[in-house]
Amino acid sequence: MKFWIKNIIYLLSTLVVLSGCNPEIEVPVPSKGSVDFSNYVAVGNSLTAGYSDNGLYADGQSQSFPSLIAGQMHEISMIEFRQPDIPGNGSGYVYVSSLDLTTNPPAVSFGQFTEDPNWLNQIDGPFNNMGVPGIRVKDITVNGYGAIPQLNPYFYRMLGGKSATTSYLEMVQENPPTFFTSWLGNNDVLGYASSGGVAGITGAPITGLGGLTNPTTEFKPSYDALIAALTSSGAKGVVVTIPDITLTPFFTRIPWNGLVLDAPTAALANQFYQISIDTTVQKGVEQQVIFGAATQQVYESAYQQAIDSGASDGEATAIAENFVASEDGQSAIAEANDIISLSYYGLTEDQRPNHPLYPAIQQNKTAIMAQLDAAGLIPEFNEGPNPFVIEVPITQENPLGLRQMAAGELVLLSAQLGGQLTGQAALSPKPDQYILTTEEVKNINDYTADFNDIIRDFASSNPDIALLESNEALEDVRDGLWQDGVNVTADYLTGGAFSLDGVHLTPRGYAIIANRIIEVINDNFDATISPVNINNYRAVVLP
Amino acid sequence: MKKLLTTSLLIVFLIPLSFGSGYQVLLQGNRTIGMGNLGVMMHADASSLFFNPGAMGFMDHNSVMIGFNPIFAGNTYWDSQTENSHYEANTDNPTGTPFYAYGVWGLKESNFKFGIGVVTPFGSGVNWGNSWAGRDLLSELTLRVIQIQPTVAYKINDKLSVGGGVNVSLGSVKLIRTILLEQRNEGSNYSESSVTLDGNATSSFGYNIGLLYAPCQKIDIGISYRSKVDMKIENGSTEFDVPSSLAPFFPEGNTFDASLPLPSVFSTGLNYHFNDQLDVGVQFDWVGWSAYKSLDFDFRENTPRLEDTSSPRNYEDSWVLHFGGEYKLESNIQLRAGIYFDTTPVQDGYMTAETPDNNRIGMTTGIGYSPNDHLQIDVSFLYIKAAKREQTIAQTIAAGTYNPDPKDGSRDVLPGSYKLNAFIPGFSVAYKF
User: Fold this and answer.
1) Could you give the CA distance from residue A52 to residue A484 in angstroms, rounded to a whole number?
2) Under an 8 A CB cutoff, do A21 and B87 touch?
3) Measuring CA to CA, which residue among B59, B50, B261, B66 is closest to residue B167?
4) CA Rg value for chain A
5) What pTM was estimated for this model as a whole?
6) In a 10 Å sphere around its CB, with 0-12 CB exposed, 13-18 middle and 19+ buried, how is residue A161 labelled?
7) Interface predicted TM-score (ipTM) of this complex, two decimals
8) CB < 8 Å to A493, chain B
C-alpha cells in the first residue's frame, strides 16, 4: 500500500513541476541574412537622435528608431548599441499642461519641462547612435561644429575625450560600421522652412546661416564624403530620403484660411481695414499730389526764368529739367512742398475741399482705391473661415505691403505659439517669419527634390546600399494607418505620430520608421528581422 | 460559525480556471476525472448528484464528499499574422482552484435519496499581463461561478432510477483591459490608461435532471440534462484610469450591466461491466454553446467616448466524446484511465484572448483507495493539450471581429496563433455511512 502512495506522490510532484511551463509554439528563427549587425551605426539628425517635443530627453532617446531597430537585431545576434545617453529631461521639452476636450476646438495649453542640470556633460564615444539634432549635411565636415555648447550643444556633449575641433565626419571615420542607416538632409531645408523663408538661400543676398543648402557645392560633396566613410569597411546600409517637410503638422496644423470669424467680427474687420487703407491711401495721395504740385511750380518758374532771359522753348525745357534734378532744384521743391503742405494741412477737414489741389487728390485717390480693389488687395472678411492677412514686400503692384493668403500658402505652427492667432492679433497682418508663400514652398520642394536625387544615387549605384523613401511613410500616415490596435494619423496632438513640436515624431512615429527600415533591410539583404509592435510605443502624453 | 466558514470558502475557492471548452470547467468528481470524465452512467456515488441525478437513486449508502482540483494552465500566443514577426506572449494565469462538495442521504428502506451539492461548473482565470500586444482586448479576466443544487432521486425499481434538482448560480466577473492612451502622472512620468469592470451576478436558477437504466447486470445506461442559465450582472462597478482631460467622459460611479450564458449540457453514456474487476465506458456530451452570441456591456451612463459595447462571440454547440475505465487491482484499490476529445465552440475568426480555444484532448489517470469501509480517497491527473490554432486576419475580417480600416480600424480579437495546455491534479475524500 505504501508503495502506491509513494509513487503517486512522486508522480504528482513531477507533473506539477512539468506543468509550470506554458505551451511552446514553434516560431521561425529570425535571420540576419547577409548583414553583419555587430557594429550598427546610425548617422543622422534629430530624427535619428530620438528628439521629440522640441527637446532631447531620456525617455524619447531610449525610443529612438535606431535603438528600436537595434533591439530587434539583438534578438538575432547579441549586439551592443550605445547612444549618447542624456539624463532625465535632457535639454528640456514641451508637454501638454492642460487640455479641455469638452470645447470645440479643444482648448490646449503647453508647459515646459526644464532642462537637466547635467545634460551638457560630455560623454566619451564611440556611439552607435550618431544622431545630432540640428545638424545639416553641409555641417558634417565643419571643424569646431561642437567646439562650444552654443554652436551645437548636442554635438558638443558627444565630444568627450576628443579635440574640440573634431568634425562630425571625423567621428564617423573613427568608428567604421558594419551596418549603417543614414537619414540626413532634413535640416538643410528645415532652417529655411521654419523661418518662413526669412533665412534665405545660399548664394542669394541676405542669406543667414540657416539658409537653404546648395545642392551641388555644399550638399553633394559632404554627403559623398560621409558615404565613403560609412562604407570604408564594406558595410551595408540604408539611406533615407528627406520627406516633404511641408506636410508635417508644423506646416499643416493651421490652414491658410484658418481665420474663423463670426458675422459681427467680420464686419468689424472689414470696416477696420477699409478705414485704415482709406486713410493710408488718402495720406499717400495727398503727399504725392502736393509733391507733384511743388515740382511743377519749381519747374515752371525755372522755365519762365529761362524764357525771360531769351532762351528758346527747347532750351528753356532743358534748363528747367536740369534744375529740377539738381540739388538746388530739389531743395527748392522741398521748400515749395513745405509751403503747399502748410496751405493744405493748415486747413481744417471742412475747408480742404476749397483748396485748389483738392479735386486732383480726390480723383487720384478714387483711381487708386479702384485699382487696389480690382487687384483684390483690400482684405475682405465674411462669416466663417477667412484667409489670414500677411505682410509682403511693398511693390508697385502692392503699395500697401499686405494681402490675404491664397490656397497653397502655409501658416507655421510658430504663429500659434507666438500668439499670432488669438484675439485681435489674429486679424493683424502676419510677419513673413510665420508664413510660407507659394514661391517659398516651391523653393523647399525643389531643393528637397535635388537633395533626394543625390541620396537616391547612393542606393542605385551601390548594391550594398538600400533606400527608404521616407515620404511614402509620411503619406501613409497622412492617409491614416491602423496597426496593432491603434490609429495613427499626421494630425497634430491627436494623430499619434508627431510630437508637440509638429516636426519631430513621437516614439510611436519612430516605431513606424523603425519598421519601415526593418522592412527595407529584410527585402534587400535576405534578413527576417521581426518588426516592433507599435502599440508598445507611446503617442502624445495627455494630462 | 457555520456561516463564517461558508463565506471564507467562497473567497478562497471561487477562482476556477477555464479548462473545459469555452469556459466550462469539468471537474466535479475525481473518480470520474480519472476515467476520462465519464460520469453520466458510472456506479453511483455522491458526485452523481452533479453528473446524473438519476444515478443517485442507486446509491447503496449515504455519503459526504469533498474534492479539490488545482488547475495549472498556460496559453501562448505568437503573432504569426505579421510578416517576419516572432513576437510571443505567455499568460501568467493564477492557479485555478475549483472544488466541489456533496452530501447525499436517504433512509435505508426508502427508494428516495436527498442531496445537496456545491460545484464550480464554469469559470475562467486568464492573465496575459498589461504589456502584451493584445492588452487593449484583455489583460486579465476572472470569471467565477458557483452552483448550489438541492437534489432528489427516486429508484423506481432495480433497473431504473430518476432524479432531478434545482440549481442556483452565483458568480462574478472581473475584466481588466488597457486603453492604448498615455496619461501624465507625477512630473514627466506617464502610464497607460486602463479600465476595470467588476460585477457580481444576481442569483439565477436552472435545473438538472437525469435517469439511469441498468437493463442487465453488465450494462448501465445514463442520460442527463443540465439547463442553460443566464448569469446576469447588474450594476457592476467601472473604474476608468484615464487622463484627467478625459475624465469628463468617464463619470465616476458609472455602472454596467452584462450577461453571460452558462450553456446547457446533455449527456448520455454506457458502461460495460466486464467482470468484477473491469468496467469500461463511453459517454457523449452535447453542450449548447450556441447560446453565447455576444459579450455585451451596457453602461448606465453613456458619453461620446463611452458607448455600450457588443463583441460578437457566435459560439457553436460543441460535443465531447469520452472513453474510460476502471480496474480493481485489489478489493480496495482501483486504477483508472481515460481519454476524451472536446471540440471547441469557438468558430474561426471569433477566437479571443479570454478563451483562445481549440479542440482539445484530455488524458486522464487516477487511483482510488478505501482504507476502510467508510472512507474513499480518489486521486486523479488530467493533462489537457490543444493543437496550435492559427486565426488569420482574413478569418477575422470575414467574422467582422477585425476591421483594418486605415482611418477607423478596430478589433475584437487578435489574429495570430494560440496554443494552450493545462495540468490538473486533484483529489477527493468521501465519507460513507
Assistant:
1) 22
2) no
3) B50
4) 33
5) 0.89
6) exposed
7) 0.88
8) none
Quick one: DSSP state of residue A218? I
Q: Which CATH superfamily is domain A40-140+167-253+437-536 in?
A: SGNH hydrolase (3.40.50.1110)
Domains in chain B: boundaries: 2-432
What are the tens digits of pLDDT across the range A203-234? 776 666 778 999 999 999 999 999 999 999 99
Give domain limits for chain A: 40-140+167-253+437-536, 259-386
Q: Verify whether the Cβ–Cβ distance B381 to A528 is below 8 Å.
A: no
* pLDDT score of A171 more than 80: yes
CA torsion angle for B180, B184, B189, B190 (degrees, to 10)?
A: -10
Residue B133: which of A18, A480, A535 has the nearest Cβ? A535
User: How many residues are present in chain B?
Assistant: 433
Instruction: Give yes or no for a contact between A197 and A188, defined as CB atoms under 8 angstroms apart.
Output: no
- Residues of chain B with Cβ-Cβ distance to A20 below 8 Å are 72
The grid coordinates of residue B113 equal 435519496
B372-388 pLDDT per residue, tens: 999 999 999 999 988 89
The Cα–Cα gap between B78 and B416 comes to 6
Q: Which three cell numbers stand for residue A238?
A: 540604408
Tell whether B303 lies on the interface with A, counting CB pairs under 8 A. Answer: no
Q: Which of A15, A113, A479 sits opposite B188 (nearest CB)?
A: A113
Beta-carbon contacts below 8 Å between A and B: 141
Q: Which fold has domain B2-432?
A: Porin (2.40.160)
Q: Which of B17, B78, B84 best tests the A interface by mutation, with the highest count of A CBs <10 A?
A: B84
A145 CA: distance to closest CA in chain B (Å) = 31
B189 touches chain A (CB under 8 A): no
* Phi, then psi, of A209 in degrees rounded to 5: -65, -25
Distance, CA of B35 to CA of B363 (rounded, Å) = 9
In chain A, the residue whose alpha carbon lies closest to the alpha carbon of B128 is: A22
Distance separating alpha carbons of residues A133 and A151, to the nearest angstrom: 12
